Amino acid sequence: MTVYNFAAGPAVLPKTVIQRVQKELPNFEASQMSILEVSHRWQPIVDLIDDTKARLLDLMHLSNVYDVLLLQGGATLQFTAVPLNLATQFHRIGFIDTGHWSQRAAAEAEKLPQLTAEILASSREDHYQQLPVWPQIANKYDYIHLTTNNTIEGTAYHTVPTTALPLVADMSSNFLGQTYDFTKFDLIYAGAQKNLAPAGLTIVVIKKQRIQQLNLPSMLAYSELAAKDSALNTPPVFQIYVANLVLQWLADQGGVEGITRINQRKAARLYEFLDQSQLFTNSIKASDRSLMNVPFTTGEAQLDQSVIQAAAEAGLMNLKGHRSVGGLRASIYNAMPEAGVTALIDFLADFEAKHK
Ligand code: PMP
C-alpha cells in the first residue's frame, strides 16, 4: 500500500530527498563522518550554509539586497523577534487578521513593552472563510504584518497587496509553494517544517537595510545573527542540509514557478471534486482558497471521524482538521505528489458512493 502523508506540519518531504539522506547519512562528503555529528565550523558545513542561502535567494529571484538568516525557535520566536528588530520608529505594527496564526503573531507583539499591535482588518466575522478587504492604512506603522497562507483556515493571498508601507509576511505554510513578487516584502519568515525541511529550522529573509544595530539579546538581534552568518551559536546543521537538498529538488521542478503550476493543478483538482461532491464541502471563498491546506467536512463530526479513520486504513494519513475547527484537512505541500491527490480524490469519491 502506498502511504501519503497529508499532515499540516511537520509534513511530507520529497521521496528522492529522503533516499539521498539515507544514502549519504553515514558518510558526508567522503569524510567517514555523518552529517549528524559534524561541526558547523568545518569548512564543508560553512560552504553548505552559504550554498543554502544562495540557492534560496536564487529561487526567490532576490538579489544580495536581501540576507538570509537560518535560525531556530520556529516562526513563533519570530512573532517576537520581528517587532523587536523592526518596530523601532513608530513602535506600532499593523496586523491583518486572517486567522489563528496572524492572531498569535499580533498577541506576541502586544506582549512587548511600549509596542502597539493594531488589527487593521479582520475576517473574523466571516469565520475567516475569506480574506478581509485591504484597508486604507495611515503612515504610522513600522510595518504591516500578514500571514500569506492560513494553515488552519485554508485561505491564502495569491498576490501581494499594494501598500506604501513596509510589508512583513509569515510565509510558514506556503514558503516556496507559490510565486510572489518577493521584492515587495521587507521581511519574510517561515518555519521550515512544511515545505523545506524537518522541524528545527526557521528562515528569515530580510532586506539588509532593515537590519539595525540594536541592543537586543543576541539570539534575537538580526544584526548579530547576520554578522555571524547564522552561526552565532550552534546551528541545526542536519536541517540545513535537508533544506539544501529540498532546494535542489525544487530547482529540478522548475523552481518556485514550476512548483506553483503543479500546486495549482493539484489544488484545482481537489477543490473541483469537493465542489461537485454531495457529501463533502469546502466553504472558503473560491478566490481566496489556499494551494497548500484544504479544509473540508461532511458537516457531521462523527462521519468526519469515520472518513479520517477509513482514509488512514487506506494509507491516506493525517487528514484530521486542526482541533480548533474540526473536520478534515488535506495539506498538499510541494512534496505531495499528484498521485497522492488522485488517491485522496478516488478514496473520497468511493467513500461518498458507499454512504449514499
Ligand atoms: N505561522 C503559521 C502560518 C503556521 O502554520 C505555523 C505552524 N503551524 C506557525 C506560524 C508556528 O510555527 P512554528 O511551530 O515553527 O513556531
Give an overview in words.
With 356 residues, the protein is of the alpha/beta class. Helix content is 35%, strand content 15%. The protein is built from nine helices and 13 strands. It has a seven-stranded mixed β-sheet with strand order 2-10-9-8-5-3-4, with helices on both faces. Strands 1-12 form a two-stranded parallel sheet. The longest helix has 22 residues, at 255-276. The site of 4'-deoxy-4'-aminopyridoxal-5'-phosphate (PMP) has 11 residues, from α3.
In short:
This protein is α/β, with parallel strands linked by helices and 356 residues long. It is 35% helix and 15% strand. It is built from 9 helices and 13 strands.
Name a few traits of the molecule.
two-stranded parallel ribbon, 9 helices, 356 residues, alpha/beta
- The secondary structure category is alpha/beta
Beta-strand content bin = 15-25%
Widest β-sheet, arrangement of strands: 2-10-9-8-5-3-4
Based on CA atoms alone, the radius of gyration comes out at 21 Å
Rounded mean pLDDT is: 97
Largest sheet data: 7 strands, mixed
Distance between the termini: 26 Å
- What's the tally of helices? 9
